[in-house]
Structures are given as C-alpha cells and as structure tokens.
Amino acid sequence: MNLGPTEIILILLALVLLFGAKKLPDLARGVGRSLRIFKAETSKLSEDPDEDVKTYTVQQQPQPLQATPVLSPEEQARKLEEEAARLRASAQADKKA
C-alpha cells in the first residue's frame, strides 16, 4: 500500500476537520505513547517466550485415585467451622506479630 502525497494531504485534511487543529497535537502525543507502550510490551513477550513456562512448570507424580468419603451436612459444617477457627487464630497471630 503506497500512499502518495495527495492521499497523505487528504488524510491530514480529514483529521483536521474531524478533530480540529487544537486537538491534533494531543492526539498525536496519545498515539505516540500508545505505540511506545505497545512496543515495550511486545518486546517483553519476544525476549524469552519459554521463561514463563519454565517458572510455572511443576513436576508432579501421578497419584492413585482415592475414593473420598461422603460426609453428612453436619460433618461438613463441623469441618468448615474448625477451618474457620484455625484461620481466625492465624490471622490474630499475624496481627500481634
């Protein structure tokens, strides 16, 4: 796609008509900032694409499937209350520390 001088003049004229001469410098600054941010982000992606995969790869041993016991609603509520009490105690200990 080759733009000749006539096409460039028409594009600039359309921009002036749409945005006004006073807003064009702000528009150009905004576009420039956006392009800089975009280039910085894309360069980060292309630096080492395998780096993220390496940091989050976890070696896990396959575990045999185990049947989980079915708990009654009362037992489930009791376990949840115990867990909540443990969490409250650890939160209070963190506050004191």
Automatic annotation (TrEMBL):
List every stretch annotated Disordered. Answer: 47-97
User: What membrane topology was assigned to this protein in its record?
Assistant: Single-pass membrane protein
Q: Where in the cell is it found?
A: Cell membrane
Query: Which Pfam family is one of those matched by this entry?
Result: TatA_B_E
- Which regions are flagged for Low complexity bias? 87-97
Q: Where is the composition biased (Polar residues)?
A: 56-66
Q: What is one GO biological process annotated to this record?
A: protein transport by the Tat complex
Which controlled-vocabulary keywords does the entry list? Cell membrane, Membrane, Protein transport, Translocation, Transmembrane, Transmembrane helix, Transport
Please note every region of biased composition (Basic and acidic residues).
75-86
Which Gene Ontology cellular-component terms appear in the entry? Answer: TAT protein transport complex
Q: InterPro entries recorded for this chain?
A: TatA/B/E, TatA/E
* Record GO terms (molecular function): protein transmembrane transporter activity
Q: Which family does it belong to?
A: Belongs to the TatA/E family.
Q: What is the role of this chain?
A: Part of the twin-arginine translocation (Tat) system that transports large folded proteins containing a characteristic twin-arginine motif in their signal peptide across membranes. TatA could form the protein-conducting channel of the Tat system.
Q: How does it assemble?
A: The Tat system comprises two distinct complexes: a TatABC complex, containing multiple copies of TatA, TatB and TatC subunits, and a separate TatA complex, containing only TatA subunits. Substrates initially bind to the TatABC complex, which probably triggers association of the separate TatA complex to form the active translocon.
What name goes with this protein?
Sec-independent protein translocase protein TatA
Organism for this UniProt entry: Nonomuraea soli
Q: What is the lineage of its organism?
A: Bacteria, Bacillati, Actinomycetota, Actinomycetes, Streptosporangiales
**Gene that produces this protein:** tatA
